[in-house]
Design goal:
It is built from 18 helices and twelve strands. The protein has helices spanning 36-44, 81-96, 114-117, 126-136, 141-144, 158-171, 176-179, 195-202, 222-237, 248-251, 276-294, 317-321, 325-338, 347-352, 362-377, 386-392, 395-403, 410-426; strands at residues 17-26, 50-53, 56-60, 66-71, 101-104, 148-154, 184-185, 188-189, 256-259, 264-271, 343-344, 360-361.
Length: 436
């Protein structure tokens, strides 16, 4: 939410920032096209790295074949964001026709070879990207072949930060059951249902404190966050970056990061979906659960007030804070490996959501959460397309189902991902009628 800094910190759930990353690919072959610098230059007739288009801004990323679309300022509601993002995608696609290129979604390109095809952004802030490359080697899937959605949620003070951070930590392990969309790398099935997160976990192992266990530590005040997260990052990076070019707040790569400079927590474990409608549906679902966990009492344009609907009792703040990172990481690792059909046998975790059995799949848990929490809170449930995922599976599952009748022939992969690019262009969900 770079252009969404809050001069006066916004309170819980009063605004939201969404960021979506997409690949620029050749219209015919779907090979990555590292032309973002040319695209932005042609927009402004100058070497810029950001373009404001009303309520949505476009910007560069680390690699030159990725464009990020983001809310151009905090959004007071999510209900119109799907259409706003779709309109901007259509505009970008129209402009990319001049290069015989288009945008393509999902969490990772299915046949890019990062070791030979990576091109870093060459213009403004390039010295930052080059330093990242020297320290971590950015020519790998965890750096140059990943697209994600980030959700930015505000907090006004330490009390709100603690409540939000406690709730986000509980939600992180099960979000990839909905959002995984990267089962395929270099024309081979990955060992994990969510390959992007597998690489994300390990791409900075030279300095392990940057990512930690991915599930953030049990810290619920700004002071503790600095002591337990920022200070160790700064100490570990000083020998590698003695000039302090890389700021510790930007280096922090946990699955959710605190940005005290703008009063927000940024959730980062979500693969990009096939279209904004599906991304915003996942955001609506996640935010509904977080509103419930934090005990948020107010209604807004998207959600009812809890007092106006029937909801189960949320676990208390102390209970939420008691969960350790290793306990949550165990659930998270299982889900990114085997997806929404992973059996969760941690009854204590299931009890947080009043799940009616001692064990169940992640998909069964989400169906229960949707029925008891998300659907009652949504003012317009039809705007949330989560039932597509609950019925047909995550996009990773739908990709596997669509290609299951064939060996992974290049032509079949291109045909399927061309359909995803079409879904992005038309803002429609992908539901496989049958295998290719």
């Amino acid at each position: 939410m770079n252009s969404s800094e809050l001069k006066t910190r916004a309170s819980l759930f009063t605004v939201t920032g969404i960021e979506l990353e997409y690949m620029i690919v050749d219209r015919d072959s779907l090979a990555v096209r590292p032309i973002a610098d040319r695209f932005f230059y042609d927009l402004a007739d100058a070497p810029v790295n950001e373009y404001e288009n009303g309520s949505i801004a476009w910007s560069n990323e680390l690699v030159n074949h990725v464009i990020e679309l983001k809310c151009n300022g905090p959004a007071p509601a999510l209900r119109d964001l799907s259409d706003r993002f779709a309109e901007n995608i259509a505009t970008i696609n129209t402009r990319l026709q001049a290069y015989n290129a288009r945008l393509m979604p999902t969490g990772a390109h299915p046949f890019m070879r990062p070791d030979t095809e990576t091109r870093l952004w060459p213009n403004e802030n390039n010295e930052i990207y080059e330093l990242y490359d020297r320290i971590f080697n950015c020519r790998g899937h965890g750096w140059s072949n990943l697209q994600s959605m980030h959700i930015n949620l505000p907090f006004a003070d330490d009390d709100e930060f603690g409540r939000l951070h406690a709730a986000v930590r509980l939600l992180l392990p099960i979000l990839p059951a909905l959002s995984a969309s990267s089962p395929l790398l270099e024309e081979s099935w990955d060992s994990h249902h969510d390959a992007r997160l597998r690489f994300y976990r390990t791409n900075q192992q030279r300095v392990p404190v940057i990512t930690g266990d991915l599930i953030p530590e049990q810290v619920f005040t700004e002071g503790d966050y600095h002591r337990h997260i920022f200070d160790p990052i700064r100490a570990a990076m000083t020998p590698l970056d003695p000039l302090g070019i890389l700021e510790y707040e930007f280096l922090n790569s946990r699955g959710a990061i605190a940005r005290f400079d703008r009063g927000a927590i940024e959730i980062r474990v979500l693969d990009t979906q096939e279209c904004p409608r599906m991304d915003i549906s996942i955001a609506l679902a996640g935010i509904a659960v977080l509103r419930w966990l934090t005990g948020h009492t107010r209604a807004d344009m998207d959600f009812h007030a809890p007092a106006d609907v029937t909801l189960p009792a949320a676990p208390g703040y102390a209970i939420q804070c008691d969960w350790t990172a290793p306990d949550l990481l165990n659930i998270f690792e299982q889900i990114i490996r085997t997806g929404e059909d992973t059996i969760i046998s941690n009854e204590r975790f299931l009890n947080l959501f009043h799940f009616p059995a001692a064990s169940g799949s992640a998909r069964q848990l989400w169906r229960h959460i949707y029925t008891t929490i998300i659907h009652p809170l949504l003012k317009t449930p039809e705007q949330c397309a989560l039932p597509v995922i609950l019925e047909h599976g995550s996009l990773s599952t739908r990709i596997k189902r669509s290609l299951s009748a064939h060996s992974l022939q290049h032509s079949h992969i291109v045909e399927l991902y061309r359909q995803f690019a079409d879904c992005l262009a038309t803002n429609t969900a992908y539901v496989p009628a049958n295998t290719l």
